[in-house]
């Protein structure tokens, strides 16, 4: 009997209350929850603050209206012109950044030797790290003057110039995401294609890129979502004329640029134009959120696919 | 027995090889274009703004007259903003990452947190601005202060800090943790004394990345109402302020060429700051990883 | 020649009665400064199975990959000596690696079907090489069927040719890779431990397949499994740290090894 008592070793430590450990863990947990709270706060703020707006303007009128004149009489709050303005930039930027970004990603992942890569990759990252207001400046002082030489009719503010710089802006993003997904394609697939007598371009275009297709697609969606949310470059370069137009040489206004325009002015709180930024913000948030969720889903499935 | 065979490239293969070289050149040209654009961008900025850059420019307050205006207030504002942002986002981001990486099982909560963070990373910065405006400026009545700006910016860069820190933590070999546990250390002790130090280089990189993002962000600050005309140096976190990118935006949106020059010079200051920050980051990283290696 | 000398001087020697269209002469391969294969000379008998055995890291896979120039894609890899195919050195600058590979199918350690349909996997090679260009679509379909039949997979997949190849089991995937490899109508089949990732039943199927295909192809198989080499091959080469220790007909190599090292290896004393 006595033997067993002396040999009893407390394997489970007497759960002493240790205040330091406890509060440290509580801090860690609270920090992790900040991100959830942030998301909730975004949703609450956008919904709560746009309720007064939707009392004046019905959601249908907002979503389907073709006139956006919040600051002029007669006021109209149809968001389509802003959506079309945003589409200008998204499509234009996509046409530039998606093919070029994929091509750059292909070069980095398939063609560049270690030394070229070590040189090129940081430079691409520099391009990605340049603040967006700088791209706005570049559009105004460099891109637009060049465009003016080709299109004499082009305005000082036009969606083409904005699209080009937003394209340049998201290009490094597309390139590095594509590079990552292309690299995730196992080497054994490349070997399999080479062994059948394929050339490098054939291996890349017929096996590697198709094999990474869903990942590439996800990168594209993510990049376009960035283009939608891009603010400063389009505010500076695309102008502030909300209109339903297909002409890229004209001035337009994007959703983001509108929000900036209102908050730069002296619009008093409580007015409907002030409330409208929350409604536009809500739409912007929902669209980018949907794209991000879609892209993250695709990307996750892609990663699981190759392990 | 052996049929005569020809291993020199067939005409069809010659065509395919030509296409192969063409595609290689094409991909190279694509990658090169990125560099050309970068060069053009830098050329545009330097050629417009270099002449305007002087000590006077750095040390002057904004002015109606382009040639008397400077970035003194903006620089101080940005400095305040960076310090307060990091003081908030640094600890919270690292703590959140530690919790996610070291203290959660791969359960439902972890999955939700993970999805949430990657979605937050994709929310446009102007949405954070709207959040800051409604929540910090008005609901919490912090006004158009540095603190309101820094809180907004902290939420904006939080996903960057968390994602980078998690990656750094994940790179720490499990054997290190096992060894620490085997010596009787508690999970918290293990994280603080063993895991965190060896993940430090990666964490620092993440923090620098977050800072680089924060220093260039413009839209959220415009939303919370950072001013464009500030003729004083902020003295505390409750002061109103301006920041470098806002000052640049203000100048760039004016039609006069002289202000465009100011904008370019302001950009040069901003890029120089980014360069310094990233160099410090690289330095810290190198020293930290040297210390770890035997 | 060296090989002839080997045969006459020491007993029966490797079975080269059918002749050979593929040989390796004085072949040394290095990765950077690290030698992987040292001065190996051997011939692969036509329409016979040659096994290359040895402990891991002995250079057998490197040697196999030298046969269709797959090592070209490893930057640090250097080769000296000759690999002769129909009397031509495949490393001759005038010769295109793609032409060589087209004539030598390769099957890898882990099944590596492309993330495409079953049909597209098999059709990949013929499409690359334009084999059926200008012919009716049915010609390609017939060829795909023929290859799948030859790989013993047709019955299992004939109703789902459009399904993703990744929906197949591991053993089926490997047979699909065999079908894909023979779709170019190669003369040689190179197999790099083709069963190492498979279960015993799938392994048995592949081994049967190898014995069936022996009639039509010159097969070189790298394996770490000595029983497998004994079961499927006619000739066996034993490599140890990059040296070809012994090359002989399989029966003799396993029952009467000439070298002490071979004997130690096959009796399981190391490796």
Description:
- The complex is a heterotrimer of chains A (307), B (294) and C (271).
- By secondary structure, chain A is an all-alpha fold.
- Chain A has helices at residues 2-6, 19-56, 59-64, 80-111, 114-129, 132-150, 159-184, 187-195, 200-211, 213-229, 232-237, 255-264, 272-305, and strands spanning 68-69, 76-77.
- Chain A has a two-stranded antiparallel sheet with strand order 1-2.
- Chain B contains 11 helices and no strands.
- Chain C starts with a helix and ends in a 5-residue tail after the last helix.
List keywords for this structure.
heterotrimer; A: 307 residues; mainly alpha; MetI-like fold; 13 helices; 75% helix; B: mainly alpha; 11 helices
In short:
The complex is a heterotrimer of chains A (307), B (294) and C (271). With 294 residues, chain B is mostly helical.
- Helix and strand pattern of chain A: HHHEEHHHHHHHHHH
In the sheet with the most strands of chain A, the strands line up as: 1-2
CATH class of the domain at 76-242 in chain B: Mainly Alpha
What is the CATH T-level topology of chain A?
MetI-like fold
Overall structural class of chain B, as computed from helix and strand content, comes to mainly alpha
Largest interface: A-B, 84 and 82 residues
Distance between the termini of chain A: 55 Å
| Strand portion of chain B | under 5%
CATH fold group of the domain at 76-242 in chain B: MetI-like fold
Oligomer: heterotrimer
| CATH class category label of chain A | Mainly Alpha
Helix content of chain A: over 70%
Shape of chain B: flat
CATH architecture of the domain at 76-242 in chain B: Orthogonal Bundle
Number of helices of chain B: 11
Helix and strand topology:
The complex is a heterotrimer of chains A (307), B (294) and C (271).
Chain A: H1 2-6, H2 19-56, H3 59-64, E1 68-69, E2 76-77, H4 80-111, H5 114-129, H6 132-150, H7 159-184, H8 187-195, H9 200-211, H10 213-229, H11 232-237, H12 255-264, H13 272-305
Antiparallel strand pairs in A: 1-2
Helix pairs in contact in A: 2-13, 4-7, 4-10, 5-7, 6-7, 7-10, 8-9, 10-13, 12-13
Chain B: H1 11-49, H2 55-58, H3 72-103, H4 108-121, H5 125-139, H6 146-170, H7 174-182, H8 187-216, H9 219-224, H10 244-252, H11 257-292
Helix pairs in contact in B: 1-11, 3-6, 3-8, 3-10, 4-6, 5-6, 6-8, 7-8, 8-11, 10-11
Chain C: H1 2-9, E1 20-31, E2 34-45, E3 49-53, H2 60-67, E4 77-85, E5 88-89, H3 97-103, E6 104-107, H4 118-129, H5 137-150, H6 154-157, H7 170-182, E7 188-192, H8 200-213, E8 218-222, H9 226-232, E9 235-240, E10 243-249, H10 250-255, H11 260-266
